[in-house]
Specification:
Elements (H helix, E strand, L loop, with lengths): L7 H22 L8 H22 L14 E5 L11 E6 L31 E3 L9 E5 L7 E4 L5 E2 L10 E7 L2 E7 L6 E3 L1
Antiparallel strand pairs: 1-2, 1-5, 2-3, 4-7, 5-6, 7-8, 8-9
């Protein structure tokens, strides 16, 4: 008579195999619960500076008339008061689509906020808060010159400027720190290239 089923030995082997796979996979599964390192966060800021520059470069291809917005610029703003991104320790990526001199607003109540979309979350307003959430505890300080030190602007050629729309003439930096760890992101004039130190 042909009986179908599993033997005790087969069941024990399957249980052992599942246990080995679980032990091997657990570090990968729970890796996301560790805090973000200073180096990783500095890399994110560097990437966000590049994202700001690429948005400014892409805007030159839009059909927006030059008379409406001649600059096609984007700004990344560190610790600059923003009604759409609360807190004193934060950064945003904004534009001035209606060319009225107010960056990151809701122009003409049209429902279009003058901001980059956050590619990580899909949110319409690019806001990274450092007072709470994933990046809580980090401090970012930047001085690009100009009347508002924490503003870096890129034009449609990808050239970096300060808040007064003066081209950067020397390398400028963004300092990132958490506890005793710190890193510096350097922005090179003319090209806007970045480097982490």
């Amino acid at each position: 008579m042909d009986k179908k089923g599993f033997t005790i030995i087969e069941l024990v082997m399957v249980i052992i195999l599942v246990a080995v796979v679980a032990v091997a996979a657990s570090p990968l599964i729970f890796r996301g619960t560790e805090s973000v390192t200073t180096a990783a966060f500095a890399g994110k800021i560097r990437d966000d500076i590049r994202y700001t520059q690429s948005l400014a470069l892409l805007r030159s291809r839009l059909d927006t008339p030059t008379a409406t917005n001649p600059t096609f610029a984007y700004r990344i703003r560190f610790n600059v008061a923003d009604a759409n991104c609360t807190g004193t320790n934060q950064y945003t990526i904004v534009n001035d689509a209606n060319n009225n001199g107010t960056w990151g607003e809701n122009p003409n109540a049209s429902g279009t906020i003058e901001s980059a979309r956050n590619p990580a979350t899909g949110e319409d307003y690019f806001c990274v808060q450092l007072d709470s959430g994933t990046y809580a505890g980090f401090t970012v300080s930047a001085n690009f010159g100009g009347a508002v030190a924490g503003i870096l602007e890129f034009d449609n050629f990808g050239i970096p400027y300060d808040s007064d729309r003066a081209k950067l003439t020397a390398a400028k930096s963004v300092a990132v720190s958490k506890g005793s760890e710190s890193m510096t992101i350097t922005v090179i004039p003319n090209t806007g290239l970045t480097a982490i130190q």
